[in-house]
Amino acid sequence: MTNKILTLLSQEQLDKFYAAGHWRDATIFTLAQHFAQIKPDGIVVRDGSQCLTYRQLVERAECLANEFNQAGLVSGDRVAVWLSSRAETAIVLVACSRAGLVCCPSLHRDHVSHDVVELMQRMRARAFVGELGYGADAARNNIFELLHEVPTLKKHYLLNKDDDGGSFACTAATASLDPKSDPNTIVYLAFTSGTTGLPKGVMHSDNTLLANARALVKDWQFDSNSVIYTMSPLSHNLGLGALVMTLAAGAELVIHDLPRGASTLDRIIEVNATFIVGVPTHAIDLLDEMKKRNMRAPGAIRGFRISGASAPQEVIEDLLEIGIYPQSGYGMTEAGSHNYTHIGDSAELIVNTSGKACDGYEIKIFSKDDPDVEAGVGEIGQICGRGASLMLGYFNDQAANDKSFNSLGWFMTGDLGQMDENGYLKITGRKKDLIIRGGHNIYPTRIENLAMQHPAVSRAAVLPVPDKRLGEKVCLAVMPREGADASADELLDHLDKSGLSRYDMPEYYIKLEHIPLTASGKILKRAIASQMEKGELVPTPIRYVPRELRQ
Question: In sequence order, what are the beta bridge partners of 252?
Fold first, then answer.
């Protein structure tokens, strides 16, 4: 089976990654099939309404793949998925892997129906799996009444929120379909959830997804007894990656889908979770609940992947104290979770770096001014990468492909960072997010990460404020932790003590009751910036005075 979709796959990649063992002959479907033979009644995905076994996963994926085939879908056709976090997403992904189709589950809860229609039009979707009453505008619009606006659709499935878990079970005998045997065709299409710009469609094969999953399984010692609890929705790459990692290990995935007010801690203990995938807020909330209940250990948890932002040192130290190894990391939809800290790394490394590149992936820092000139050790530059987990290109977007690689073939992330002599990466900001104050470059991510270390700060965002003389000045927006508070002067003192240059100090301040997040757990800066532009948020001028100059 060949790629019907134009990709960046080359024979050089095939030879290199197969020889190194990063790419193999297994597909996501054949892995699920393998574990269905070894542990047929073992649970693979657990959500609020069902426990899906490996045998059920494979049987229902077989049925769905055959239905897609009977509806006229052929290799390379796209299947759009707009569901809450539920086991059916796993069934659709495995079915697409079996049938040679492309699964696109990155339609998020905060999308409105017309967003989803537009994305389906862009991908020319042939099938749609949706949930009635889901989405940001569910009270006003019914996505199923808008499907006529996607002329390429041949098949759709309507799921209800309270389905009992029998979705996609066979109702009648269906013709057998030969499974896909090539793990290098596109199986996953994910639209980026970046904070600016039109989402790009990122294309992954079974092998690019599994290369990263296998490295994580090896380094973090996952096996068939592991129970991975994902706080990240399956519509996001982090949650989807947790699912693929689960399948690579023959483990169990628990989807976080609790009703508001329910105890996450109780759920984690109930399912005997051993590893959590989430963002700093999840770790903070978990530790706060444990302290309120005077608990020393949250069940069987031994590891916690913290993505999206830097976690405060206090949080990292508290996790280590109760026997949980935090995993700080760096990754993106285009390349997976390829950078991370390891079991045994110090609290300092976990707080201040994003770990090292995993086996099968490489990171290099290139000059901010010339993407073809490599930066020195410790020098801030653009983070670039290449390896077995790198995407096979952007869907139907040659211009984006052309702009995303330097002349040496390295993928340019658009992020800025520095690497130490041991290969540990430190993120300093987005190239696009640079604040230029009177010709001086200021990196928002560094200020945000330092602000987040203050015990009273739950979330922090750094944005530019236009200035007639200097061009831009720095504004710090913070969301205090529940029951805590800190003045602007206290935060400026904290930044100073944490090592922030006086030339990088914020000159405006906003305290917010809530700072929104993207579906991937990143700070949604554009929402704050929009309110500032409209005058709905007015930053307060502040001024840092060095301690030696204070009266």
Answer: 227
Q: Tokens at residue 503, please?
A: 């030339």
**Per the structure block, which two tokens stand in for 182?**
């090539």
Question: Which domains are present in the chain?
Answer: 50-181 (3.40.50.980), 433-549 (3.30.300.30)
Structure tokens at 421: 């002599």
- Write out pLDDT tens, residues 200-258: 999 999 999 999 999 999 999 999 999 999 999 999 999 999 999 999 999 999 999 98
Residue 223, number of CB atoms within 10 A of its CB: 10
Residue 12: exposed, middle, or buried by beta-carbon count in 10 A (0-12, 13-18, 19+)? exposed
| Pair 24, 17: CB distance under 8 Å | no
194 with 245: CB under 8 angstroms?
A: no
Strands, DSSP E only, in 403-516? Answer: 411-419, 425-430, 435-437, 440-442, 457-467, 471-480, 508-511
Exposure string over 483-502, b if 16+ CB within 10 A, otherwise e: eeebebeebbbbbbeeebee
Q: Name 376's bridge partners.
A: none
Residue 183, Cβ neighbours under 10 Å: how many? 23
Phi/psi-derived region of residue 426, left when phi > 0, alpha when psi is between -120 and 50, beta in every other case: beta
Task: Report helix, strand or coil for 40.
Answer: coil
Pairing assessment for the beta strands 201-205 and 186-191 based on DSSP bridges: antiparallel
Scan for tokens 């996609």, then name that residue: 168
Residues 139-160 have pLDDT tens digits of 889 999 999 999 999 999 999 9
Angle at 102 between CA 97 and CA 108, to 5 degrees: 115
First to last CA, the chain: 76
Instruction: Please state, in angstroms and rounded to a whole number, the distance separating the CA atoms of residues 242 and 445.
Output: 26
H or E stretch including 44? strand 43-46
- Report residue 295 as tokens: 């608990």
**What stretches of 333-393 adopt beta strand conformation (E)?**
336-340, 356-357, 361-366, 381-387
Q: What is the token pair recorded at 27?
A: 């597909």
